[in-house]
Amino acid sequence: MSTSRTLLGQGAEAFVYLDGHVIKERPPKRYRFSTLDETLRKSRTRREAKIMDKLSLLIPVPHLLSVDDALMKITMTHIPGELLRFALLRLGRDEAAHLFAHIGKYVSLMHAAHIVHGDLTTSNVIYTGEDAVLIDFGLAFVTQKVEDMAVDLHLFRQALESAHYSVWKDLWLAFVKGYSSWQEAPAVFDRLEKVEKRGRYKRKTLS
Q1: Rounded Cα–Cα distance for residues 170 and 207 (Å)
Q2: pTM reported for the whole predicted model
Q3: What does the alpha-carbon distance between residue 133 and residue 108 come to, in Å, rounded to a whole number?
Q4: Per-residue pLDDT tens for 27-67?
Q5: Active site residues
Q6: From the CB of residue 201, how many other CB atoms can be counted at a distance below 10 Å?
Protein backbone atom coordinates (compact mmCIF):
# COMPACT_ATOMS: atom_id res chain seq x y z
CA MET A 1 0.00 0.00 0.00
CA SER A 2 1.30 3.44 -0.93
CA THR A 3 2.23 5.67 2.01
CA SER A 4 1.90 8.82 -0.11
CA ARG A 5 -1.83 8.68 -0.57
CA THR A 6 -4.01 11.33 0.99
CA LEU A 7 -7.46 10.80 2.44
CA LEU A 8 -9.89 13.02 0.53
CA GLY A 9 -13.09 11.98 2.18
CA GLN A 10 -14.87 9.39 4.27
CA GLY A 11 -18.51 8.41 3.97
CA ALA A 12 -20.74 5.85 5.60
CA GLU A 13 -19.52 3.06 3.31
CA ALA A 14 -16.36 4.22 1.58
CA PHE A 15 -13.02 5.97 1.86
CA VAL A 16 -11.70 8.15 -0.96
CA TYR A 17 -7.95 8.65 -1.40
CA LEU A 18 -5.70 10.61 -3.73
CA ASP A 19 -2.65 8.69 -4.87
CA GLY A 20 -1.92 10.11 -8.32
CA HIS A 21 -5.42 8.97 -9.24
CA VAL A 22 -8.49 8.96 -7.01
CA ILE A 23 -9.21 5.63 -5.33
CA LYS A 24 -12.51 4.76 -3.70
CA GLU A 25 -12.56 1.75 -1.39
CA ARG A 26 -15.42 0.06 0.41
CA PRO A 27 -13.99 -1.60 3.53
CA PRO A 28 -15.76 -4.51 5.26
CA LYS A 29 -18.53 -3.72 7.72
CA ARG A 30 -18.09 -5.92 10.76
CA TYR A 31 -21.67 -5.46 11.92
CA ARG A 32 -22.99 -7.30 8.84
CA PHE A 33 -22.79 -11.01 8.12
CA SER A 34 -19.63 -11.50 6.05
CA THR A 35 -21.38 -13.08 3.07
CA LEU A 36 -24.05 -10.37 2.95
CA ASP A 37 -21.43 -7.66 3.41
CA GLU A 38 -19.32 -8.97 0.54
CA THR A 39 -22.35 -9.24 -1.74
CA LEU A 40 -23.48 -5.69 -0.97
CA ARG A 41 -20.05 -4.13 -1.35
CA LYS A 42 -19.40 -5.98 -4.59
CA SER A 43 -22.75 -5.11 -6.15
CA ARG A 44 -22.47 -1.44 -5.13
CA THR A 45 -18.93 -1.19 -6.46
CA ARG A 46 -19.94 -2.73 -9.78
CA ARG A 47 -23.03 -0.53 -10.05
CA GLU A 48 -21.13 2.66 -9.35
CA ALA A 49 -18.43 1.76 -11.86
CA LYS A 50 -20.96 0.99 -14.60
CA ILE A 51 -22.83 4.23 -13.98
CA MET A 52 -19.64 6.29 -14.08
CA ASP A 53 -18.53 4.59 -17.27
CA LYS A 54 -21.87 5.31 -18.96
CA LEU A 55 -22.04 8.91 -17.77
CA SER A 56 -18.50 9.68 -18.93
CA LEU A 57 -19.88 9.61 -22.49
CA LEU A 58 -22.60 12.14 -21.63
CA ILE A 59 -21.49 14.65 -18.99
CA PRO A 60 -18.37 15.78 -17.12
CA VAL A 61 -17.54 13.13 -14.52
CA PRO A 62 -14.26 11.51 -13.43
CA HIS A 63 -13.19 8.88 -15.93
CA LEU A 64 -13.20 5.31 -14.69
CA LEU A 65 -9.73 3.77 -14.92
CA SER A 66 -10.30 0.42 -13.27
CA VAL A 67 -12.61 -1.49 -10.98
CA ASP A 68 -11.63 -4.31 -8.65
CA ASP A 69 -14.67 -5.98 -7.14
CA ALA A 70 -12.47 -8.36 -5.20
CA LEU A 71 -10.89 -5.48 -3.29
CA MET A 72 -14.06 -3.39 -3.67
CA LYS A 73 -12.00 -0.60 -5.21
CA ILE A 74 -12.65 1.91 -7.99
CA THR A 75 -9.83 3.95 -9.52
CA MET A 76 -10.70 7.12 -11.42
CA THR A 77 -9.07 10.25 -12.78
CA HIS A 78 -8.36 13.12 -10.42
CA ILE A 79 -10.26 16.33 -11.25
CA PRO A 80 -8.27 19.44 -10.26
CA GLY A 81 -10.48 22.08 -8.70
CA GLU A 82 -12.47 22.74 -5.57
CA LEU A 83 -15.81 21.66 -4.21
CA LEU A 84 -18.57 23.86 -5.57
CA ARG A 85 -19.80 24.40 -2.02
CA PHE A 86 -16.69 26.46 -1.29
CA ALA A 87 -16.28 27.99 -4.75
CA LEU A 88 -19.71 29.61 -4.43
CA LEU A 89 -18.38 31.76 -1.60
CA ARG A 90 -16.39 33.80 -4.10
CA LEU A 91 -18.17 33.35 -7.45
CA GLY A 92 -20.09 36.33 -8.79
CA ARG A 93 -23.82 36.12 -9.32
CA ASP A 94 -23.67 35.86 -13.12
CA GLU A 95 -20.85 33.32 -13.05
CA ALA A 96 -22.71 31.16 -10.53
CA ALA A 97 -25.93 31.33 -12.56
CA HIS A 98 -24.08 30.32 -15.73
CA LEU A 99 -22.50 27.40 -13.91
CA PHE A 100 -25.81 26.20 -12.46
CA ALA A 101 -27.44 26.30 -15.88
CA HIS A 102 -24.69 23.90 -16.98
CA ILE A 103 -25.32 21.68 -13.96
CA GLY A 104 -29.04 21.62 -14.77
CA LYS A 105 -28.23 20.55 -18.31
CA TYR A 106 -25.93 17.79 -17.05
CA VAL A 107 -28.50 16.46 -14.60
CA SER A 108 -31.14 16.42 -17.35
CA LEU A 109 -28.81 14.37 -19.55
CA MET A 110 -28.19 12.01 -16.64
CA HIS A 111 -31.92 11.60 -16.06
CA ALA A 112 -32.55 11.13 -19.77
CA ALA A 113 -30.12 8.20 -19.53
CA HIS A 114 -32.33 6.82 -16.72
CA ILE A 115 -29.78 7.48 -13.99
CA VAL A 116 -30.39 9.42 -10.78
CA HIS A 117 -27.52 10.61 -8.65
CA GLY A 118 -29.11 10.04 -5.25
CA ASP A 119 -26.98 12.61 -3.42
CA LEU A 120 -26.94 15.82 -5.45
CA THR A 121 -25.31 18.55 -3.37
CA THR A 122 -22.72 21.24 -4.00
CA SER A 123 -20.30 19.01 -2.07
CA ASN A 124 -20.61 16.45 -4.87
CA VAL A 125 -19.70 18.85 -7.66
CA ILE A 126 -16.17 20.01 -8.44
CA TYR A 127 -15.68 23.46 -9.93
CA THR A 128 -12.69 23.38 -12.27
CA GLY A 129 -12.55 27.11 -12.86
CA GLU A 130 -14.39 26.69 -16.15
CA ASP A 131 -16.99 23.98 -15.68
CA ALA A 132 -18.71 21.70 -13.19
CA VAL A 133 -17.88 18.01 -12.77
CA LEU A 134 -20.30 15.72 -10.95
CA ILE A 135 -18.74 13.24 -8.53
CA ASP A 136 -19.62 10.50 -6.02
CA PHE A 137 -22.10 8.09 -7.57
CA GLY A 138 -22.17 5.74 -4.61
CA LEU A 139 -25.94 6.21 -4.20
CA ALA A 140 -26.74 6.46 -7.91
CA PHE A 141 -29.01 3.93 -9.56
CA VAL A 142 -30.74 3.18 -12.83
CA THR A 143 -34.45 3.93 -13.04
CA GLN A 144 -37.12 4.97 -15.51
CA LYS A 145 -39.43 6.34 -12.81
CA VAL A 146 -40.22 10.05 -13.02
CA GLU A 147 -40.78 9.92 -9.26
CA ASP A 148 -37.14 8.99 -8.66
CA MET A 149 -35.94 11.85 -10.86
CA ALA A 150 -38.24 14.29 -9.06
CA VAL A 151 -36.91 13.16 -5.69
CA ASP A 152 -33.37 13.67 -7.02
CA LEU A 153 -34.27 17.31 -7.78
CA HIS A 154 -36.13 17.70 -4.50
CA LEU A 155 -33.09 16.64 -2.49
CA PHE A 156 -30.86 18.96 -4.52
CA ARG A 157 -33.20 21.89 -3.93
CA GLN A 158 -33.24 21.15 -0.19
CA ALA A 159 -29.44 20.95 -0.15
CA LEU A 160 -29.18 24.32 -1.90
CA GLU A 161 -31.57 25.97 0.53
CA SER A 162 -29.72 24.53 3.51
CA ALA A 163 -26.13 25.22 2.44
CA HIS A 164 -26.60 28.43 0.42
CA TYR A 165 -29.61 30.06 2.01
CA SER A 166 -28.93 33.64 0.85
CA VAL A 167 -28.55 32.76 -2.85
CA TRP A 168 -30.31 29.43 -3.29
CA LYS A 169 -33.30 30.80 -5.18
CA ASP A 170 -31.14 32.32 -7.92
CA LEU A 171 -29.09 29.13 -8.14
CA TRP A 172 -32.22 26.99 -8.36
CA LEU A 173 -33.75 29.14 -11.11
CA ALA A 174 -30.55 28.86 -13.14
CA PHE A 175 -30.51 25.09 -12.59
CA VAL A 176 -34.15 24.82 -13.73
CA LYS A 177 -33.33 26.80 -16.88
CA GLY A 178 -30.60 24.33 -17.77
CA TYR A 179 -32.64 21.26 -16.85
CA SER A 180 -35.58 22.51 -18.96
CA SER A 181 -33.64 21.87 -22.16
CA TRP A 182 -34.80 18.25 -21.82
CA GLN A 183 -38.17 17.56 -23.42
CA GLU A 184 -39.26 15.41 -20.48
CA ALA A 185 -38.46 18.13 -17.94
CA PRO A 186 -42.10 19.33 -17.56
CA ALA A 187 -43.18 15.86 -16.39
CA VAL A 188 -40.37 15.79 -13.81
CA PHE A 189 -41.18 19.28 -12.54
CA ASP A 190 -44.86 18.37 -12.29
CA ARG A 191 -43.95 15.35 -10.16
CA LEU A 192 -41.51 17.48 -8.16
CA GLU A 193 -44.38 19.75 -7.17
CA LYS A 194 -46.34 16.74 -5.95
CA VAL A 195 -43.33 15.41 -4.03
CA GLU A 196 -42.92 18.76 -2.28
CA LYS A 197 -46.63 18.98 -1.47
CA ARG A 198 -46.42 15.56 0.17
CA GLY A 199 -43.44 16.75 2.19
CA ARG A 200 -45.28 19.86 3.37
CA TYR A 201 -48.33 17.78 4.30
CA LYS A 202 -46.22 15.37 6.35
CA ARG A 203 -44.52 18.19 8.20
CA LYS A 204 -47.89 19.79 8.90
CA THR A 205 -49.39 16.58 10.29
CA LEU A 206 -46.32 16.00 12.47
CA SER A 207 -46.32 19.51 13.93
Answers
A1: 30
A2: 0.91
A3: 14
A4: 988 888 889 989 999 999 999 999 999 999 999 999 999 99
A5: 119
A6: 10
